[in-house]
Amino acid sequence: MQVQLTQTQWIVMHRFMFTLVAAWIAAASSASSVRADDRPKQPNVVLIYTDDLGWQDIKCYDIDEPCPYDTPNLDAFAKKGVMFWQAYSPAPTCSPSRCAVISGVHPARAQKTHVVGGHPPHPHSINSSMMDPWYSGRMPEDTFTLAKAMKANGYTTGHVGKWHIAINHNAFPQPMDVGFDFTRSDRGAHQNVKDRLSGFATSAEDDAYRLDENGYPFHQNNADALQFLNQFKDKPFFLYYCTWLVHSPIITRNEALLNKYAERMGVDPAKTPSKEVPGQRNPFYGAMVESLDYYVGQVFHYLDSTEDPRWPGRQLSENTYVIFTSDNGGMEGGPTERYTDNNPLDRGKISAKEGGTRVPLFIAGPGIPAGVESDVMVNGLDFYPTILSLVGAERPTDKILDGCDMTPLLKSDPTNPALIKHADGSVRDTMAWHFPHGVALESTIRVGDFKLIRNYDHVGKPGTPNLELFQLYKTVDGTQQRVDIEEANNLAAAMPKKTQAMNQKLTEMLSEMNASYPAYNPNTKSELPGKQQVPTITEVEERNGIVRVEIQDNGASVQQVHLIYTLNGNDRYEEWFQISMQSAGADKFAISLPEGTTHYFINLIDENQFLVSYPSLKKLKGGQKSYTPHALTVTP
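Above: the chain's sequence. Below: its structure in token form.
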């Protein structure tokens, strides 16, 4: 007789088997620690930050539909430490998550909530009902970064791969501007190709991507990581290894892998599924995931097989903490093509729903138990304080760190949520995300088992609810049972008190971080409440470095007036900043221009959250390269 297991029974059995398989690793680790008195006091740290890798893209995270991607190295590594089922990225897109990890500061607090940024606010089109707020193009210049902190504690610091902490990959600041001693950014085998059905790597000696003995193309991105490890293995090191995989372009130079997944998925590589077709059925993406697994596996192998010069007779991995995760949820597809599927999670990258922020996370190293699976809620913001704690470095006293130190959790009981505490000793049970951009325009908060989504564009889109409440889990006697991680059952109407309480908590958290909010477009054709009362900027005068503004009151009071300015108008990396103007009397505001300002705009926001720009940018569309032709020019 065939026995059908319920989903909960299957997960329990899966985790039980996972623990048994890993038991010998824990025993071996315990035995070797007996002779660890001569361990170097400064352990190494490797943070592997992958790009767009989804929660369901690794085999060992399978919970519903079978994952078609082979990830043997990551599956094996998961058994060497703690595997987190409820790990989150700081943001649903890459740049703000990367800034948050390196700075330790929440994207809302840093005003770095999306990619690019650093430009004047304007609607995506004249008919858009809302527009993004101004947000920074980069990490704040004076940030005491994780790299600086590690360097101050005697570490050699290295960055390899994707950077994306500025408005452009090549703009300021670069890795060496923020504390890294070593940096390489080559895309390696993931360089784009004109025709992805040709140009595959071969065994020819003159092939820049020559296949290795295992049939994988040479990948400079990974070679750079191995070079750093080899070059600095005799010193305490911190490696921030950022893979370009598995971000688009969706290509592979490994023809054998492509054919393997095409056959497995029953898909012709010339006819990959459209974005409307669900499932993990893109053979190019499958080849990319397995390639990522292979290259990262080479790093694991190097650490496991290389003797530690500071600890003769031991391997580097015995005194190295390794963190593996992703910068955001999986990108499910592009304009015409399905890449992957985060099912059962809803949506993916560029959404604050679970599919956009829940990510894989493994952490292993000295003192961390092997083969443990944890349901504790953690975040990429936790890496900064955790890494400092793991290596014995003091936490900066004059700096806000929005994450928690995971060390007590990792080294005591990785399954106990009471061990995740804020700096003041209070247990953390709440996280918030702020993504006031594009098609999302939302903020979210998770408190324990429940998650609330606040949709800002609910007025211009009547079918979109203002607030959505979901119960992801039900905790019974300390054990979480899966309820609605799909975010399919909106409980806002059924649980109004909890909905309002969580919404108020979200407001308090965003207010404390001085978050910026999306604004209504006064030029939209849509009928929006308060559109007829929007104030008018009647005069802007600049004299002797001081800008004065006069405003006409049309019924709605002015809440904020900002100077949006640039110091490098018409530059290739033109970047705009925002500062508040001060009241100079009734309906008048003034400010001294920051030194070096070349061009500027005036923005005002009224009590109904309408934003007025002077000069107007109502006819511009997204993706503008330069705003200086539309701006006011500073008088010489």
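The chain has three domains: 7-114+134-423, 432-518, 531-633.
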